[in-house]
Every structure is written in C-alpha cells, then in structure tokens.
UniProtKB/TrEMBL annotation:
Keywords: Metal-binding, Zinc
Protein name (record): DNA-3-methyladenine glycosylase I
GO BP: base-excision repair
Molecular functions (GO terms): DNA-3-methyladenine glycosylase activity; metal ion binding
Database matches in PANTHER family: DNA-3-METHYLADENINE GLYCOSYLASE 1, DNA-3-METHYLADENINE GLYCOSYLASE I
InterPro entries according to UniProt: Adenine_glyco, DNA-3mA_glycosylase, DNA_glycosylase
Pfam families in the cross-refs: Adenine_glyco (PF03352)
Region annotation Disordered: where it falls in the sequence: 1-21
Ligand binding (Zn(2+)): H195
Length: 210
C-alpha cells in the first residue's frame, strides 16, 4: 500500500525531496501531513512477509483505486475493525449479508465491488496455502534491479513484474489487482525501492541497497 501512482498526494511544482524541520529529506507527499509522514518514516517500503499483513495490503491497495492513499490511511483503523483485522479465514466466511452490512459502514470505502473483492481475495489467499502460499507467491516477482529515481518524474507506475504479478493473481482468483495497483503494492512491501535517492529512507528495506 503506497501513495505512488496517479492518486499520489503531492505538492505541485516540487519534484525532488523536501527537507523537514527535523533535517530529514522526504518526498513531497510525505513532507507535510503528520499521518503520511509517520507512515513514510516507519512503514512504507518495509518488507511484509506474513500472510495476514500481505492480504491486508492487497485489499487496501484495491480500496485505494481512484482515491488518495491519505484517505485509506485515515480509514485504516475502521477497515481493520470491519474486516476483522484482515484475517483471511474470517473474511473468507463473509456472506452477502456481511456485504450489505459493510455498505452501511461510514468508516470504510463503501464500494460493493471492492468489498466483494476483499472476500474473494481472502478465499484465494486460503487456496494458495495448498501451494507456496501468498507470501512466496507474491515475492517470486521481485525484480533483479530496483528503480533509482532522483525525482518523482522518474518513478514508474508499473513494471513488467507488476504486470506479471497482476496476471498471476487474477489467474488465482484475485480481483482489483491491476498492474498499477500491484506496482504500488510492490513499493509498499519492499519488493522494489522507489524512495528518491536523497531520501533518508533510501535503502531502508534491507532488500535493496543504494
């Protein structure tokens, strides 16, 4: 789950990092809003290698489609309550009655297709346990190299690996996992490092250096 892509909040006219009052360089989208700043400093780009955490990120990236990440981040506590902390086994058992209940919940994004996608994605996550599991399935699409952007304009919105991951997940029954959404996921979970080169978080995932 990442603010990168078409829905990324950003300061127009600023394409490099912004020096914060703490002396640390961050991209514009993480330089002002305290919630986004904390997310950037502590979570975005940190490897996610547990099933529940990865399932949650896939769902929230899907809910973000067409919206800003700030909106999803502010609603995340409500999402976690509504979807039982994104435990795949619990969400997979949701019924149409649960869909109708969630459509009345003002704390989340009330989109029927996205809510149903969270349920089918939980079921698909469980099905993958008979194979390599969701985590290994997603991480097999780690590219051989990562972008090295000096400015926001140099950050791609998708890649051959995100296209391949999207196709593979769709084949397994997942939905709301388009190539752009999957590239945002890859950024958020450390599969690629798109921190700007002079950001204080560059290389912080431990997956990529430099």
């Amino acid at each position: 789950m990442t603010p990168a892509g078409t829905a990324q909040p950003r300061n127009e006219g600023v394409d490099g990092t912004v020096l914060g009052d703490d002396g640390l360089a961050r991209p514009p989208w993480a330089a002002v809003d305290p919630l986004l700043r904390e997310y950037y400093d502590s979570e975005w780009g940190v490897p996610v290698r547990d099933e529940q955490g990865l399932y949650e990120r896939i769902c929230l990236e899907g809910f973000q489609a067409g919206l800003s990440w700030a909106t999803i981040l502010r609603k995340r506590p409500a999402f976690r309550q509504a979807f039982l902390d994104f435990q795949p086994d619990a969400v997979a058992a949701f019924t149409e009655a649960d869909v109708e209940r969630l459509l009345q919940d003002p704390g989340i994004v009330r989109n029927r297709l996205k809510i149903r996608a969270a349920i089918t994605n939980a079921q698909a996550t469980i099905a993958l346990r008979d194979r390599e599991g969701l985590v290994d399935f997603v991480w097999q699409f780690q590219p051989r190299t990562t972008p090295r952007p000096a400015s926001h304009a140099e950050i791609p919105t998708q890649s051959p690996e995100s296209v391949a991951l999207s196709k593979a997940l769709r084949k397994q029954g997942f939905s709301f996992v388009g190539p752009t959404t999957m590239f945002a996921l890859m950024e958020a979970i450390g599969l690629v490092d798109t921190h700007l080169l002079d950001s204080h978080r560059r290389g912080s995932s431990g997956v990529w250096t430099g």
